[in-house]
TrEMBL record:
PANTHER family: ACYL-COA
Organism: Paraburkholderia bannensis
Superkingdom of source: Bacteria
UniProt name for this protein: N-acetyltransferase
Gene3D superfamilies, per the entry: 3.40.630.30
Lineage summary: Bacteria, Pseudomonadati, Pseudomonadota, Betaproteobacteria, Burkholderiales
Length: 390
């Protein structure tokens, strides 16, 4: 290798607060596929609100490369030492169970990801291709030299995944459902592209909400008041309560991102007779050139049941916002074939994996080969039953 390949100082950072926020965000802005979730403000809020900290099973171990000549950040990745597999959305519970049944420890493991965020985007931030390759190699070397069972990089870009695969990591595929804006003039223009039955069902769902006397408000981040955050947090917690689970995020976190990155937030509130009864929070980002952008469906909850209110609050209102703001993509989040009936199409996502134990690594490799074939067949079948008119 050329000498420049080694002209970096490696850092393992134990908290986002130890990082220079402006330098981190400047590096992020240079990436091909940045997302708001990798902004320093978002990661710092997860840490400060105690959502992604060692006592929650998320110990930050951010990997950084500093240019030894300039002292500037050349590359960085959000890495956590994990004591469980909650909040990841790429499921490896079966792998952990197989380790346990064979008397081996699966945890701790290393995870390169944004906590609680199944959104594909840059994971290996770098100033250039050399720094990118070196960061990928450093990340794998860190895992090999640490007492962990494995390294997992979740929802990376194709470029990140390729760099990691070149180093021998195994690639895994998954499926999400994304909506693409084909330059629609308004919501009715979008509906006109769907099959008649799908159009009829969506109109019926929206009509049920209106006939129930429910009205909707969309509030941009800078206009969200503290009482709105308190109400939304109640709705968010209610969703987890209904699923007999514990929420990953808290009111402090929502308040923090509301204050530090309001330009990326949209809150939808449903009201009945002047009283709020449900809400959803979506995150969006415009492209660097100001044209297009992406909206990410994130969190939803309701304190009262109204038929079809979930679809109106978490899908149709954000879709209208996308069309009005000329955002190009609405990523609907993890899972959900039901999204296809509303114009969302299957999209393949990626993750990269390294397991220290050779026998288990071979077994997982065979499993992933079979799973990938199943994923491709699944996506092909879904595309054959797409909701759009021929």
């Amino acid at each position: 290798m050329d000498k420049e390949h080694f002209d970096y100082r490696t850092g393992i950072i134990g908290s986002p607060s130890e990082l220079d926020a402006a330098e981190w965000n400047t590096l992020l802005a240079r990436q091909a596929q940045p997302t708001p979730f990798l902004r320093h403000e978002f990661l710092a809020a997860l840490d400060a609100a105690r959502c992604a900290t060692p006592d929650a099973g998320w110990a930050p171990q951010f990997v950084t490369l500093t240019d030894a000549r300039t002292g500037r950040l050349a590359a960085a990745a959000p890495v956590y030492l994990k004591g469980h597999s909650y909040g990841e959305y790429v499921f490896d519970w079966a792998w952990a169970d197989a380790y346990k049944r064979n008397g081996l420890e699966y945890y701790p493991k290393l995870l390169c990801a944004v906590p609680f965020t199944p959104v594909q985007g840059t994971r290996l931030m770098a100033t250039d291709e050399t720094a990118h390759r070196h960061l990928a190699a450093t990340l794998l070397a860190f895992a090999e030299q640490t007492d962990v069972s494995s390294l997992h990089v979740l929802f990376p870009t194709a470029e990140d995944a390729a760099a990691l695969t070149d180093l021998g990591m195994m690639q895994r595929e998954g499926v999400q459902f994304h909506w693409l804006n084909d330059g629609y003039r308004d919501f009715e223009d979008f509906l006109s592209t769907l099959e008649q039955k799908k159009r009829k069902n969506i109109r019926a769902e929206r009509r049920k909400v209106r006939d129930a006397g429910v009205t909707l408000r969309r509030i941009r981040g800078e206009d969200i008041r503290d009482e709105d955050w308190r109400f939304f947090s109640r709705c968010y917690r209610q969703t987890y309560r209904e699923h007999f689970s514990s929420p990953y995020l808290n009111l402090d976190f929502f308040r923090m991102i509301g204050a530090s990155m309001p330009e990326n937030l949209l809150l939808v509130i449903a009201e009945y007779e002047g009283k709020p009864i449900a809400s959803s929070l979506v995150v969006y980002q415009r492209d660097a050139d100001g044209k297009g952008g992406t909206l990410y469906g994130r969190y939803w909850g309701a304190l009262e049941h109204v038929p079809c209110l979930h679809f109106e609050t978490a899908y149709y209102q954000p879709l209208e916002f996308c069309i009005e703001e000329k955002l190009a993509v609405f990523e609907g989040g993890a899972q959900g074939e039901h999204k296809m009936a509303r114009g969302f199409m299957p999209t393949v996502t990626r993750s990269a994996h390294w397991l220290a134990h050779p026998a288990f690594s071979d077994a997982v490799a065979r499993f992933l080969e079979s799973e990938t074939n199943q994923i491709h067949a699944y996506v092909h079948e879904l595309n054959e039953h797409n909701p759009f008119r021929s």
